[in-house]
Amino acid sequence: MLDEAEQQNVDGLIQEGQTVIVYVGYQQSFAITVQRDATFQHRYGMLRHNDLINKPYGTKFNCTKGYVYVLRFNPEMWTKTLPHHTQILYTKDISMIIFQLDLRIGSIVAEAGVGSGSLSHSILRAVAPKGMLYAYDVDPCRLDSVRMDFDRHGFSNMTKLQHRDVCVDGFGLEHCVDALFLDLPTPWLAISSAKKAMKNGLPCRFGSFSPCIEQVQQTCSALHEYGFVDIVTMDLCHRLLRVEEAVLDKPISKEQSELDERSESELIVTTDKQGMKVQKRKWSYLVPNQRQQPMHTGYLTFATKMK
């Protein structure tokens, strides 16, 4: 399949040259490339790369002030730990993009506005091992950085990167991609070229990410003009909830008692100040997590080219 992935799957052991995830805590992880005689400094002390080589993924490594876990590389963890050259797409949006573009093994995909390569890694994982990603960006430095990431992560044989402004010069492709995604300031200027790049005779999926609703309006107008159908725009909000428990007095009505017997609550018998036994119910319920949560990231627009 992929050089690095094959090696990881054969023995499940960490090898020199592989990218691994150092899990320090729930809010802190790092991606490092294992190099002999190298060290990695973190808040719990120093991690020696030599100690990682030939150890199983998921191993707990003790440091001077605590411990860390070293995990297998995957696109989701890469999104959390990659160096940001631009603003990136996160997992909540990426998962919907992969689903809406109908990606599968062998799909051929074009992506304009690669940025830091967050979405690109998830696309490649979805279409591997027989698929292909045509990736475009206007910044050659970003492309060079992403190209090095693809090489380290074993995706180089599935990617073709081009320094190109697709809004001006088009994609340079004709009727060969199954799906296409744009993360551009003016995506409506690339709709004509996007349609030309898509396969004939088969339904092909289009997607676009835009932070502002005015961009969405112009993109949807262009999609309608060029004959796309099933045009839909969505805004995903990832809201975390937590479980809390409360002990409430048990209702005495017959109807409510029968309801309690069918519900998932725990009966608690306690003694009051007068020494009388009192029945109460322990309930579990969901409440919003009080931590600050990011909500709006941008609008996702999807459409289908039928002809």
UniProtKB/TrEMBL annotation:
SUPFAM superfamilies: S-adenosyl-L-methionine-dependent methyltransferases. It is an enzyme of class 2 (transferase). Pfam families: GCD14. GO terms for cellular component: nucleus; tRNA (m1A) methyltransferase complex. It is found in: Nucleus. GO terms for biological process: tRNA methylation. InterPro entries: SAM-dependent_MTases_sf, TRM61_C, tRNA_MeTrfase_Gcd14. Its main location: nucleus. It catalyses: an adenosine in mRNA + S-adenosyl-L-methionine = an N(1)-methyladenosine in mRNA + S-adenosyl-L-homocysteine + H(+). Its EC number is 2.1.1.220. This is tRNA (adenine(58)-N(1))-methyltransferase. It comes from Trichuris suis (pig whipworm).
